[in-house]
Amino acid sequence: MTESHEKNRPTVRFVVIEPDREGQRIDNFLRTELKGVPKTLLYRVLRKGEIRVNKKRVKADYKLCAGDEVRIPPVRVAEQGESIPVGVSLSNHLADAVLYETDALIVINKPSGLAVHGGSGINNGLIEALRQLRPEARFLELVHRLDRDTSGCIMVAKKRSMLRYLHEALREKRVRKIYHALVCGRWPNRKQRVNAPLLRDELKSGERMVRVDANGKESITDFRVLRRFNDFCTLVEASPLTGRTHQIRVHSQFIGHPIVGDVKYGTDADNARMKSKGLRRLMLHAAELSLTLPDGTTLNVKADYDSEMQTALQVLALESVDS
Fold first, then answer.
1. More confident call, 129 vs 212
2. Is-contact 229 284, C-beta < 8 A?
3. Distance from C-alpha of 39 to C-alpha of 148, rounded to nearest angstrom
4. How would you classify residue 111: left for phi > 0, otherwise alpha for psi between -120 and 50, otherwise beta?
């Protein structure tokens, strides 16, 4: 092996946790420390026990304490020159998508089709793009997630203190999130709450699938009809009272009205019929979020539909009038 290869070869590192990182989950900590490493690999080394905290194995949800010593194994990190530059189109889109910003928090109207973070074949997600576009920012971290094909409100913390505050607010259900979803068929007025436990499975491919199961975690979503388009489909408001993976998508499927464009939980026949009308994206949008900020003020942010969702709803409205 050449001298240059020896120099670049990763080695075991030990990191002592500073007080301002206390409370951060170990998996989120590793994403920051090992930028460029696929998420699936991070979780694999955690499961195998190669990541140690104070010489002990930990799970992905372990919360770090000040003074913890974290052993980070020799995992290859992407080279400095390997990051893919953010394209002009995405750069301009994100600049226009900022809904709210202070020195501690950004709320962005995330476009459908953009993953929140890179990995698993995705070079740049939302957070990587933001870090490239704002190199002066010392700290930028996702507060929560949205599925790749879901659009709308997503929070990014610019200070660790804000990240901790918002994580606590989410745990204590002090953040109200409202989604709009276009679902197949005629949603029944009587169905205003779905209370069905969800169990998450991980397939061998690494893909996550969620299903209703008595052994799953409590999951509750409130629904309200916003508009019907004959019996073809219904625009509903969905307010998740719990924060499970794919919760709205699976709860919609569970009562027989999957979300339009959902290739994971919808049916091929429904999706083919919707595509014939030009409805190609997952029709789920994080429309609004509200919470109380650390200074006591109330933040209420709303995100407009993108042009594709707006056009789809306009076409459906015209068809409903004609029929």
1. 212
2. no
3. 15
4. beta
Query: How does the average pLDDT of the chain come out, rounded?
Result: 87
Tokens representing 50?
């190669």
Give percent above pLDDT 90 in the chain: 54
Q: Read off the amino acid at residue 160.
A: R
68 in catalytic set: no
Q: Measured between alpha carbons, how far is 95 from 83 in angstroms, rounded to an integer?
A: 20
Find the angle CA(311)-CA(316)-CA(317) to the nearest 5 degrees: 95
What's the pTM? Answer: 0.75
First to last CA, the chain: 73
Q: Checking DSSP bridges between strand 151-157 and strand 284-292, what pairing results, if any?
A: parallel
Answer left, alpha or beta for residue 165, where phi above 0 means left and psi between -120 and 50 means alpha.
Answer: alpha
Q: Which of 98-107, 120-129, 184-193, 220-229 has the lowest mean pLDDT?
A: 120-129
- Residue in 68, 96, 147, 149 annotated catalytic: 147
Q: Are 260 and 266 in contact (CB under 8 A)?
A: yes
The yes-or-no verdict on residue 206 having pLDDT over 70 is no
C-alpha span between 104 and 159 (Å, rounded): 5
Locus of tokens 């999706």: 271
3-state secondary structure string across 248-315: HHHHHHHCCCCECCCCCCCCHHHHHHHHCCCCCCCCEEEEEEEEECCCCCEEEEECCCCHHHHHHHHH
What confidence score (pLDDT) does residue 137 get?
Answer: 85
